[in-house]
Structure formats: structure tokens, C-alpha cells
Amino acid sequence: MLQISAGETENSTVFWTMGGYYGLAVLVGVSLLLTTGQCDVSCSGLDGRPGERGAPGRDGHPGAKGEKGEPVVMAEGPEDPGVLLRLKGEMGSRGSQGVMGPKGYRGALGAAGSPGTAGRPGPNGKSIGHGGQHSPLQARSAFSVIRTDRSYPRVGQVVTFQNTVVNTPADFNAATGHFTCRVSGVYYFTFHSVAKVSVCLSIASDALLDKLGFCDYNKNSDQVLSGGAVLQLTAGQKVWLESFRDQQRPSELTDSQDKQIIFSGFLLFANTE
Question: Is Cell membrane tagged as a keyword (predicted)?
């Protein structure tokens, strides 16, 4: 080791100092070499423990879209039904109409609907009546009467009636048995009788050349006789019901069992001329 006196210059002192550090470093290095040479055979270090698992990383960015694939081509061999269902084929032809199914059950009756709107007014009617004459558009005539007398109607006489059901407007006289035409036009007349003996009745009128006779003969039960006629009448002509004899027995003409005769008539339409 170098020794420098105290009276040496400042530069010499620095050199001493740097030389001293250098020597110290050499000694430390030799000491480490000696220690390492002794532990190469008899000394060994312990293994370190594994580190902890790190936190999951973030998702990566989406990848680029791939190229369009080639059209599907079936390979030779058995066809896979699952694959065929996924393949869209061409539209087939329309099938034939199936058989009509059975009629369904009838549904419940719904609530009544709201009233409809009123229709437009119709045209004004035309009246052709003059003075006291009745207009055909307003003309009306109808009657229905019933005979309840148990005696047989006298042969050749007009049948009279005891009860009046309808007589509008009083064109029929129940006491005389005559209907008198008030409005010229076409009328319909009909009668029905029920008795336990044979009955013959005829429709008579000033408008007929001959009487229209109808008969029903007893068959040991209630006899039902009906007759009718359509007549063209002018004002003042009469229509009535009349009894006549055909093949009835004398006892039947004097029979007093229950009997009933209904005589009816009404205007179908009035003359327009």
C-alpha cells in the first residue's frame, strides 16, 4: 500500500483517495470469489413458489367477415332429410281442393244491431178520385159472417147470418144475406160449412149467368164443404149464398143438429177506368 505524507499536494491526496477505493474493491471481489468456491458443492437454493393466476384478459376485436360460400351440392349417396329441410326448393303446383268439412256448430245469437238510417222519401202518390167517388188507391171492402142457426137453410132461399166478424165498410147486410158492390173491381168470395148431414150451397150474383153450386154428402161424420170464386163486379151488383137440393134425403133437409156456415169476401183491386 502506498503512503503519502500530509504535506503532499491536493492532487496527491486525491490520488490517494482513489487508490484507497480501488484497493478496497479488489479485496471485496477476492472475498466473494473465496466464498463462492466453497458453496459450489455443499450449498443449494430453495425453489420459488408459483405466482398467482392473473385476471382474465379483455375480449379481442371482432374478426373480418368471411367470404361467401359456394352453393350447396348434394354428394352422391343417401339424402339426409335434415339437410333437405334446410334447403329451399322451388314452389310446387297448387293441390286439388279437399273435401268440405262438416258443418260447424251454430253460434250464439248476437246482440241486436243498431237501427239503420231512414231511407229517402218515396215519390208522392197520385190520386185519381173525383168528387164523392172513391179512389182505387184508397178503396177497400171486406166482410166475414157466420151462420149459427141449427136449422137447414131453406132450399132456393138466400142464406142469412147471425154473427158478423168483419164488415168494412158495411157493404154486407147480414139480415138479408146480400153483399152489395160499392167500388167496381175484382173481388174474391169463399164459404165453408160444417154439418152432420149432406149440404149443397151455391154462390149467386147479378154478375153470373149461372150459379156456382157445391155439394158434400154425408158419410156418417162431420161434413166439411168449401167453395170460392173470383168475380168482376160493377157498382150496385150483389153477391149472396144460396141453398139448393141435389141428392139430399128429405130427413136431411129438416135436420136440426149443429151446423155452421162461414161466408167471406174482399176486394182484390179496384178498376182504374
Answer: no
Our count of domains for the chain comes to 1
Cell of 155: 132450399
pLDDT of 1 > 60? The answer is: no
pTM over 0.85: no
Query: Does the pLDDT value for residue 219 go beyond 90?
Result: no
Looking at residue 172, its pLDDT comes to 95
Provide the residue range defining the domain that includes 196: 142-270
The CATH number of whichever domain residue 153 belongs to comes to 2.60.120.40
Whole-angstrom distance, CA of residue 259 vs CA of residue 151: 8
